[in-house]
Amino acid sequence: MLLSMTGFGSATKRSQGLTVEVDVRSVNNRHLKVTVRGTDPYPLHESEIEKVVRRTVRRGSVTVYVRVERPNPLTDSTINTEALTAYIRQIRRACDAAGCPEYVGPLMTAALTLPGVVPEPCHFGTPPDEEWPLVRATLESALAKLDAMRAEEGRATSTELMALHAVIRQELAGVRSLLPTITAGYRQRLLDRVNSALAEAGVSLQPEHLIREVALFADRVDVSEEVTRLTSHLEQFAAIVSEGTEAGRRLEFLVQEMGREANTLGSKAGDIGISRHVLEIKATLEKIRELVQNIE
């Protein structure tokens, strides 16, 4: 099954007064790149978070948002009394200046929540032992939802890729049907032009000269090898899409090779009918290339 590199997953878990929210977003990228943002110290704990992400995601640019709400016990030992006193004085002065001293009481009740009154514990580098298991479990749940979304988009992409694959097969069948007529058409056009010119000059044409010229042309425009290789690439393409495991890079390579064969086919054949089919093949390959760039 194909997996898209674009997706989103979110999860929330709570335990013993601790609330953890994790959002995971991914977009396409040639390699895996993990960026961690959110509550301290998790942006500094990127290596451990990346280990968890790598179990699910192999390619893409992944951004992990970790938000942790920690219980905040209000004890005398944790209150910054100087900061609290300064806030209370400012609140009194502000209410007096505004002529509404009745608001002092309600505002005092919110003073403990002001920055610096009850400092939150800082963690640098390593998450608290009681937090990390819950954060990891929440991250794994978010990654599971991300993976489900990527799988759903991958199924839709797989269907579209096979529809485009069918278009190329049909155009290639049109090329095969025209191949036998290229040499015969050239021979007839050459014969008509030469006979017209020789009739005016009163000179006869030696059959071996015409045969040699036609043989040289047939060798020059022979595209059977390109058609065979393009057919083989199409078979490999269908097999990889069906298999779906880490298919992105392999499909990118195959699309590149099919583009080369199509270019060679169009330049060598020298036939308007075949050129039309080649143009359709190249236009379809461009659509495939855009889709494949978003496959893991």
Features:
8 helices, 296 residues, Ribosomal Protein S5, domain 2, alpha+beta, 3 domains, four-stranded mixed beta sheet
Low-pLDDT stretches are: none
Largest sheet strand order: 1-2-4-3
Overall structural domain count: 3
Distance between the termini: 11 Å
Can you give the helix content as a percent range? Answer: 55-70%
User: Which word captures the global form?
Assistant: elongated
Query: What is the ordering of alpha helices and beta strands?
Result: EEEHEHHHHHHH
Q: Tell me about the biggest sheet?
A: 4 strands, mixed
Content of β-strand: 5-15%
Explain what this protein looks like in three dimensions.
With 296 residues, the chain is an alpha+beta fold. It has 3 domains: 7-72 and 127-150, GHMP Kinase, N-terminal domain (Ribosomal Protein S5, domain 2, 2-Layer Sandwich); 81-113, no CATH class; 153-292. The protein has helices at 46-54, 81-98, 104-109, 132-201, 207-220, 224-243, 248-269, 272-292; strands at 7-15, 18-27, 32-38, 60-69. A 4-stranded mixed β-sheet has the order 1-2-4-3. Helix 1 (46-54) links the parallel strand 3 and strand 4 (60-69). It is elongated, with a radius of gyration of 35 Å. The N and C termini lie close together (11 Å). The mean pLDDT is 82.
Short description:
The chain has eight helices and four strands; from the N terminus they run βββαβααααααα. It is of the alpha+beta class.
Write the layout of secondary structure elements.
Layout: E1 7-15, E2 18-27, E3 32-38, H1 46-54, E4 60-69, H2 81-98, H3 104-109, H4 132-201, H5 207-220, H6 224-243, H7 248-269, H8 272-292
Parallel strand pairs: 3-4
Antiparallel strand pairs: 1-2, 2-4
